[in-house]
Amino acid sequence: MTKRKRRIIAWSILGGILAAILIFVGVCGIRWAIHSKEPSSSYGSYEFKGGDTKFNLDLFPSLVVDKDADELKIMQIADPQIKFGSFTRDRKTMDLLDRAIKNEQPDICVVTGDLTLSVFTYDAFKYFANFMEKHQQYWTFTYGNHDSQFDCSKYVIYQLLSKYEYCLFDPGPSDIHGESNFLVNVFKGSKAESNLIYSLVLLDSGMYPEGVDANLSDWVYDWIRQDQMNWYEWAIQGLKSIKSDIQSSMFFHIPLKEFANMYYLNELANGREVSEVVKKQLPDVEIAEVKGVVREDDKDENEFVYGDEGYTVGIYYQGNAEGADHPDVFEYIKNLGSTKALFCGHDHVNNLKGYYDGVYLGYGLCCGYHTYPFFNNPKIFTGKVLYNAKLWTDENGKQMEKGVTVIEISLNAATYGNLTVNDRGNSYYQ
Predict the structure, then answer these.
(1) Across the strands, what pairs with 186?
(2) CA distances to 72, 116, 198, 211 from 410, in Å
(3) Which of 119, 257, 334, 427 is the most buried (most CB within 10 A)?
(4) DSSP classification of residue 173
């Protein structure tokens, strides 16, 4: 072969590669433009109007269980963080969920945010929704801090999810913060006011706060706003007008500071040291049945978190603003008296659970194999939980697994609202 022919072949190959790259970039650009579409005005299923809207059960998705059901079984799916769908470690995540759903047969699955962390967000949501549709499994979802971080707006995600029969999702009211503030009301036998038995409250805990002077490496996260709490109060009062003793559980992505309070109070109860700075801030409340661990890397003392002086434990809770728009969410929950349990995700290597001032607080067990910790046998990262799976251990020093959290709530009149919560790792379903 002559030099000229070799040059022609080489340039042809290079040209083909460049053309393929340009086509790929062009396709990605078009997809990005389509999937990043925002509505011309605010959107939602109704307007809250500061509470002036009349409460109506038809405003919310509903789940009907058997008229003789003694319990409501919920499977919490925490942080699957699907990247590419059917590729790489996503297959392990979906295999785990496949076996868990078949084994547990939950009434509903609740994804507490970060369903995806991907430049192919739309495809990841579609992949997951198709999976649940195939299983004929009812599920619902509230946003995490990564779900619309790349190529997909929350508006487009809502348009996609609205096409699926088994997805009980709602964008919530158009005139408050967040785009997944809604109820899933549970009925026995049929959807009638007289059959209302329980409610799931879903709140959008946001992504990253605007107007906060902090770097990404400061691990600063958003928070539930005052107008969301006004909506929550309206919703609970509306439920009580139909069933006066209605109970509910709340689901969101980023934990409240009360999770850190419970951790420190439990440390003190077990005779372990807590700094004097933290001791002075801890409220005088009772804790009970606290179990699980906090394995996230501890925060640095200079990291910027609201009301965080001395709180260095690896619980990356909400909030970076003081004043009227930083409501005391837990105080609302206590005062209204309906919500008996809070469930969150976000901190993948924490599974702390227990009763705090009479309300159950629980991290869902992380199910995503495409999340940290990344390496089971790390060669370089020997001391970081974010990288080193060997350091992710339970209370007995045993290496923890990816898994799901199963929540069982009594619907029996004599034991109404009694709660059983269990983390079930991958090996449980083998």
Answers:
(1) 63, 198
(2) 6, 32, 10, 44
(3) 257
(4) B
